[in-house]
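SAMPLE LOG
Freezer: B-3
Tube label: C17
Construct: single chain, 252 aa
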Amino acid sequence: MIAGLRLAVTLLTVVPAGTGRVDRETARRAMLLAPAAGLVTGGAAALVLLAGDLLGLAPLPAAALAVAATAAATRALHLDGLADLADGLGSGRPAAEALEIMKRSDIGPFGVVALLLTLLIQVAALASAPDPAVAVLIASVTGRLALPWACRTGVPSARPGGLGALVAGTVPTPAAAAVTAAVLAAAAAVGAASGGLGGALHGPAAVAAGTAAALVLLRHAVRRLGGVTGDVLGALVEIATTAALIVLISLP
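STRUCTURE (predicted):
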């Protein structure tokens, strides 16, 4: 499990935790522990928000800095995956051609629009959240919860190599469900600590909504591309994170 956690942190953050031996068993453990990596990115953003509050920053610039911190904590890899997937799916090309578009280093119009809208929504949601530090923690963990589901048994890799091939199909569905239950319980506990009964309900609702949004996108991506890639996984993280934030500010 230590090797899996090190791999999860190394793959999903800028923290140099090392990898050691990398095989599909280690990859399975890394994907199961992926939500824990959300504490690193979410923690960085929460610290920025708390510092902004101490310095008297207005909610909007503080939220923008927090989102920037999450991008820095991941080298913007998930955002890059979102842009690439948007370009690939938006092209309307067959799977092989769409995958080639996703491998290009440039960003097309679909990718630009996807990035702008996602970042705008994330900043606006954090700026209006009652407790933005808690919101960003729950959303960040939810984003990484999409990964065990995307890598569950029966979900193929779209390419023979790369990150997708390493992690695809490694996670048994019951294991993904168990991790989800743990995240739901943690979200309820954190929500209750910050917002009482309402927070205890809002936290799990955000986790459920974020996971559901990721599963919808996953289904579409697999149908169009034939499986998952590293870009697909990154896009799922951003979509799940954004959906969770929207729910956290939408519930009364």
